[in-house]
Amino acid sequence: MRSISLILAAFIVTPAFASSTLRVCADPNNLPFSNRAGEGFENKIADLIAHDLHKQVAYTWATENERFVRTTLKKGSCDVIVGVPAGVDEVETTEPYYTSTYVFVSRADRHLQIASLKDPRLRHLSVGVHLIGDEAVPPAIALGEEGVVDNIHGYMIYGDTSKPNPPSRLIEAVAGGKIDVAAAWGPLGGYFAKHADAPLAVTAITDTKDFAPLVFRYAIAMGVRSGDDKLKQQLDGALARNKSAIRRVLVSYGVPLTDGGT
Amino acid sequence: MTRRLSSCLFVAIVGMFGPALAQGDLQSRMQDDKQWVMPAKNYASTRYSGLSQINASNVGQLKTAWSFSVGSNHGQEAAPIVIDGIMYVVGAYPNEVFALDATTGDLKWKYSPAVDPSSQGVACCDVVNRGEAYDNGKIFFNTLDNHTIALDAKTGKEIWVAKLGDISRGQTLTMAPLVVKGKVLVGNSGGEMGVRGWVTALDENTGKIVWRGYSVGPDKDVLIGPDFKPFYKDAKGKDLGVKTWPPGRWQIGGGPVWGWISYDPKRNLIYYGSGNPGPWNSNQRPGDNLWTTTIFARDPDTGAVKWADVLNPHDLFDYDEINENVLVDLPIRGKMRSVLIHPGRNGFMYVIDRDTGEIYSADAYDNVTSTKYIDLKTGRPVRNEALTPLLGKNISGVCPASPGAKDWQPTAYSMKTKLLYIPHQHLCMDYKTSQVGFIAGTPYVGATVDMYAGPGGYRGEFAAWDPVKRKKVWAIHENFPVWSGTVVTAGDVAFYGTLDRWFKAVDARSGKLLWQFHAPSGFVGQPITYQGSDGNQYVAILDGVGGWPGAIASAEIDPRVRNGALGYVGAVQDLPAYTSGGSTLLVFALPHGNGVPNTEDGNAKH
Known about the structure:
- The structure holds 2 protein chains of 2 kinds.
- Chain A has helices at about 1-10, 40-50, 70, 140-145, 170-175, 185-195, 230-240, 245-250, and strands spanning about 20-25, 30, 35, 55-60, 80-85, 90-95, 100-105, 125-130, 135, 150-155, 180-185, 200-205, 215-225.
- Chain A is an alpha/beta fold.
- Chain B is mainly beta.
- In chain B, strand 33 and strand 34 (about 500-505) form a beta hairpin.
- Chains A and B meet through helix 1, helix 3, strand 5, strand 8 and strand 9 of A and loops of B.
C-alpha cells in the first residue's frame, strides 16, 4: 500500500500553470520542425492550435534527444509535444494529423529516381543515412540487411548542436555532391530539398514489405503526458477544426504526405 | 576541543611544508592507510585499507560522525579522497568541489566551476562524476562539459583549466582522472553520440596535452607502434582499428574511456578498458570493430600500446569493458604471476597476465546466457547464436542485460582474505523489435530493450570471489542492482550501499551482515576509509541515488514506461517507492573514540 501511494504521488500531473497558455516542448534548432525563431512547421501548427483554443504559445526549449521527453514534458515544464509518432508508449498521443514517409533524396541533375531499398544501384552509389545512438533509422538497418554496408555514410542526427539544424547536414551532403543519395525522413528531405543550393529530387521509399517489421511510414500526432486526457481532447478538437489549414502549412514546407499505412 | 584544535594546527603545518615534501610522493601516500589519495586507493586499484580499528567484532556500533550536503540531487558516484587530514569531494553536475576537515567535517573551501548547463542534456545516463585525483599539492577533476581542472589543494584556487572536448558534439567527461608520473590521465564519454573514444595525458603543471591515444582508427592514432606485442592472433596486423570496420566507419566508432585506469609502476604500464562500438547498428559495422571493448596496456610516458585484448569483438549487447582492472600477484599454474583481474561487463571474471595479455582464466561470475564460454586459445567469447539479435525477431532471456553483470561500480580486493568483493547487478533483457523506430525530427522514443531480474527473482548481488580457485565463496542477494562501489579492510569488514538506501557492513570472510544504516537516499557512490587526526578510523560515502539505474528515482522518469533510461527503468520500476534523490556525504566512526570497543564482549550487533 505504501509503495502504491508513493508511486501514485509521483504521477500527479502538473496542470498547465495558466489555461490561457499552450505550453509547448520543442527543439530550438531543428528545422523544418521547430526553432527558437518560430520558423518551423511545428511552430506554425502550434500557433494554429493555440489560436483555436484561445491560448498563447509558451515554449520550453530542449534538444530532442533521448532525454527530451523526461526532462521537459514529464518534468511538467511544458504540456504538449507537437510531433510524435502516433501511439508511442512514452506519451499519450492525439489523433494523428499527418502521415509521411522515408524518402530518397538525390540531385535532380543525376536523374537517379531511386525508390526501392533493393535498387541494385544502391550497392555502388554513396548513400547517406542518419544515425542515432546504437539504433539506426529504418533505412540504415534495411540497407544493412541487404548487405549494403561499405558505401554507407553516417550522419549523426544530433550532430554538432552548435550549428544550425544539425540533421540537415545529410541533405547538404547530397546537394554539395559529397554523397549521391540520402535516405531521410520525408519532412526533413522535402524541406531541405526545397531550400538546397542545387535542385534535388525527393522520392518516397517503396517496396518495403520484405523489411517488416521495420516501418517506413509513420503517422504523426501530438503528445501529452499520460493521463492528461483533458488537454488531449482539446487538442483533438482543435486539430480536427484546423485540418485544412494544417495541411496547407505542411505542403508549404515540402512535407511529403501519404495516406497512411506502412 | 583542545585536542581537535591542536590536530588542526598540525595539519596546517604539514600543509605548509607538504608540497615541498610531496614531490613524487603519491606512491608513499597510497600506502599510508591514514589517507585515501585516489578513488581506487592505490595504483593497483585494490580499494583495500590496512586499517582495523573498525572490525568485524565492533562494526555493529558504528555511528554517524558528521555529514555534509554537496547540494545537487543527482546520482552521486564520486569517491571522496583524503590527503593530509583534508577530505576532497566532488558532486554530480554542477560538479562543485569541497574541501573538508576529514575529522571534524569543517568546510575549508569550496570551488564552483561554471559548467555549461546544456551538458546535462548530452550525458546518456544521469550527470554523474566518479571522483578526483591528487598529486603534488593539486586536486584534479573533470566537469561534465569536458573540462579538466587543477586546483590548489590548500586554497581551492584554480591553477589551470583544460578543455578536452565539445558537448555540442556529444562528448562529456564523467570519469575520475588518474595521475601517473606527473601526467593527468583522462578519458571521454559519449559512445552513443558518435564520439571517437580516447585517453589523454595532460601535464599536471600546465594542463597541456602530452599524448592522446584513440580507441579506434589507424595505428598512429591508437599509438600502436613497434612495441606492440599482442598475445592473440586477432589483434595482430596493421591498422586493425581501421580494417575491422567497413570503410571509414571507425571515425565515429565509439570505444569511449569512461571507467578506471590502473598503473603498474614496476612495468611502467597503465591498464584500462574501452567502451562499446557505436553509434552504428550492428549490421552496419560487420567486423570485429577494434579497438572497442578492449583492455589496453600502454606506456604512460608516451601512450604507446604494449598489448591489447579485445574482449567482445563486434559487440552486440552494449558490453562496455570500462570496468576496473585490479592488479595483484596470484599463484597460477604452479607459480606466482602478475595479473590483472577484470570483472567483465559480459559476466566473465578475466584473469590476465600483465606482461603479455594472456588470459589465464575467464569464469562466469553471474548467470550468463549470451556467451557460452571464453575460448582461451583465441581470447574470444563463444556466443550463444540463439540469442543473437536479429531484425524482426523477438529475443528473450539475454543475460547479462546491457549494464553487464557488473558496470563501472568498482570491486575491492582484500590482501588478507585474498578475495575479490563484487557489487553487481543480476539482470536479463529481452530485445523487442520496435514498431516505432527512430524518426528524425521527433523525440527519440525508439528504445527496444526491456530489462528484468535474473533467475531467482533478485536484481543485485554482493559477492566474494576467489580468483585462484575461480569460484564464488559467498553471495548476498539484493532486491535492487548493487550500483555502489565497495571497500574492504584489514578489520575483515566490507562496506557497500544499496539503491534502497541501506549502507551495509558485512563480514569479509562469511558475508554475514554486521551493521546497516538507513540513509537519506539510495547509494551509487564509493565508500572509502581513513584515519582522522584524532586517531579514529572513519568510513565515508557519498549518498544520492541516480546514475543509469537510479535515474528513475532522481530524475523522475515515468516508471510505467519500461523502456525509459535506455531500458533500465523496466528493471527497477519500483525504486521510487524506496528513495528519492539525495546529495549527502555520510561519515561514520565508532562512538567512543580511539576505536576501543565500549562493550566488553566486543560482539557484533545485528
